[in-house]
């Protein structure tokens, strides 16, 4: 029996664990994959837009070679914090069910061997993030193996016909990197411009590549159907079919509302923002708290920079209740 079970081992889950640990509160973090798995899924050569000091957790300094750290540097930092602070985390334990008892919660998790592991605690913190649940285009062929929702690197797609769907930073970064690695790139975006709301560091390259038609841009367009060797696109000029070997659907992510709602947490149907007290982060379900980007639903208003502080408020409220 723990005082607190934290579900999710991302930066905000780790930060919450550190805050509880500092107060002597018994906790365990359950993570279905590796620690900070959302960062593991980032492009291999990615450099974050946030400065290193804004990604620190537990008041532990993070020094990177440049002001904005790389994926590799950030992964190393969170590994070192986990090891040196002896954070109590179980990785590769996927939560399958949560049930509420009279004065506690029972969490069932499945380990890598398929065994059922049972945990109990008086309180729960949901720090599940959103990046494990990509949004779907919702068209025929989306389940094909050539369709991917995360982008790692471009070398494997040299000489291939590759479509990127989306118009935010992740899609623009992928399109640029694919072109630089020799892929034939098409960028498909529902909006009329690929230049708005993206990192300044991407603007010059994407504008240059689109204007010189090094990247074929389809504005105000959407994918209609995905086939083995082609895709069809709704465009302002009508339906267009283009050759296609691979498609990256990078249109965003959303929280796992099924798990939240299974224990009674109310969720706004339009934004997927859960109901919670902004002072304590407690949900409408007693003794269930939220930490991190899951609090923002699909609004994209909460990032690591903000979510890493949620654990402090949560730990203070939990400490008050345990006294």
UniProtKB/TrEMBL annotation:
- Which Gene3D superfamilies is this protein grouped with? FAD/NAD(P)-binding domain
Record's keyword terms, sorted: Flavoprotein, Oxidoreductase
- GO MF annotations, alphabetized: oxidoreductase activity
This chain's source organism reads Paenibacillus antarcticus
Cofactor names from the entry are: FAD
Q: Which InterPro entries match?
A: Bdr, FAD/NAD-bd_sf, Ferredoxin-NADP_redctase_2
Source taxonomy: Bacteria, Bacillati, Bacillota, Bacilli, Bacillales
Q: Which SUPFAM superfamilies match?
A: FAD/NAD(P)-binding domain
Q: Which Pfam family is one of those matched by this entry?
A: Pyr_redox_3
Q: What is this protein called?
A: Uncharacterized protein
Is Flavoprotein there in the keyword field? yes
Q: Does the keyword Cytoplasm apply?
A: no
Show the PANTHER family listed in the entry: THIOREDOXIN REDUCTASE 1-RELATED-RELATED (PTHR48105)
């Amino acid at each position: 029996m723990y005082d607190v079970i934290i579900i999710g081992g991302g930066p905000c889950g780790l930060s919450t664990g550190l805050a509880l640990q500092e107060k002597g509160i018994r906790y365990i973090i359950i993570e279905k994959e590796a620690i900070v798995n959302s960062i593991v899924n980032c492009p291999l050569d990615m450099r974050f837009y946030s400065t290193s000091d804004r990604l620190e957790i537990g008041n532990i300094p993070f020094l990177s070679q440049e002001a904005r750290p790389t994926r590799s540097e950030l992964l190393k930092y969170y590994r070192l914090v986990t090891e040196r602070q002896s954070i109590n985390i179980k990785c590769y334990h996927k939560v399958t069910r949560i049930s509420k008892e009279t004065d506690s919660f029972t969490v069932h998790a499945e380990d890598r061997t398929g065994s059922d592991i049972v945990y109990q605690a008086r309180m729960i913190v949901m720090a599940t993030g959103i990046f494990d649940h990509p949004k779907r285009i919702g068209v025929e062929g989306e389940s094909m193996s050539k369709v991917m929702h995360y982008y790692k690197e471009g070398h494997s797609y040299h000489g291939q016909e590759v479509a990127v769907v989306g118009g935010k930073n992740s899609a623009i970064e992928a399109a640029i990197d694919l072109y630089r690695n020799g892929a034939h790139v098409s960028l498909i975006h529902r909006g009329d411009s690929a230049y708005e709301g993206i990192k300044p560091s991407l603007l010059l390259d994407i504008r240059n590549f689109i204007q010189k038609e090094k990247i074929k841009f389809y504005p105000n367009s959407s994918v209609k159907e995905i086939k083995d060797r082609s895709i069809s696109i709704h465009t302002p000029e009508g339906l267009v079919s283009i050759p296609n070997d691979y498609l990256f659907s990078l249109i965003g992510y959303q929280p796992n509302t099924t798990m939240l709602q299974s224990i009674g947490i109310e969720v706004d149907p339009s934004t997927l923002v859960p109901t919670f007290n902004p002072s304590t982060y407690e949900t409408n379900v007693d003794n269930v708290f939220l930490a991190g980007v899951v609090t923002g639903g699909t609004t994209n208003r909460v990032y690591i920079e903000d979510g890493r502080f949620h654990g402090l408020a949560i730990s203070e409220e939990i400490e008050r209740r345990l006294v």
